[in-house]
């Protein structure tokens, strides 16, 4: 069921307020009152949608992971077009990644994304690398994911989406070619 426009507006305001607060504080130090005041909403409105600050963050993460899951499920294998689409999702959630660029929450989110990608892309890696051992496939997957996260999150201001996608589209096939 589609959310009412007012609900979408409220959730976006609370989300943006959380990201604003995360620029200066750790999540565990942020209060519902701070988020509500930053969003120009009252606390009762916050509690209508979320249990606490951690629930708000978890729902944002789940939305992002669902977007990743839908994208990966819609692409057969690990082809060239998926990288550009993955970058679009990273851009959509840039505020989340920027706010969580360091610390345990960022690491946990990256691990969740990596696990999701592994679930859907591992088989494609075995097809692309028929002469590789399981360990080599796992290491290759880790290297490619690490490069993707580094470029798309920490280096996104230095390089455009197209530069990152073009680079990854050149480097990944050359890695796969080692194991054909």
User: Could you give the distance between the termini?
Assistant: 47 Å
Q: Give the class from helix and strand content and strand pairing.
A: mainly alpha
Cα Rg: 19 Å
Provide a count of the helices: 9
Count of domains: 2
Helical amount among residues, as a percent range? over 70%
Element pattern in H and E: HHHHHHHHH
Mean pLDDT: 85
What percentage of the residues does DSSP assign to strands (E)? under 5%
Report on the biggest sheet.
none
The shape is elongated
Task: Give me the count of strands.
Answer: 0
Give a brief rundown of this model.
Helices cover 76% and strands 0% of the residues.
Description:
- The protein has 180 residues and is mainly alpha-helical.
- It folds into 2 domains: 5-50, Arc Repressor Mutant, subunit A (Orthogonal Bundle), CATH 1.10.10.60; 55-177.
- The protein has 9 helices and no strands.
- It has helices spanning 5-22, 32-38, 43-49, 53-74, 80-92, 94-99, 104-128, 134-154, 161-177.
- α4 packs antiparallel against α5 and α5 runs antiparallel to α9 (161-177).
- The protein is elongated and about 60 Å long.
- It starts with a helix and ends with a helix.
- The model has no long low-confidence stretch (mean pLDDT 85).
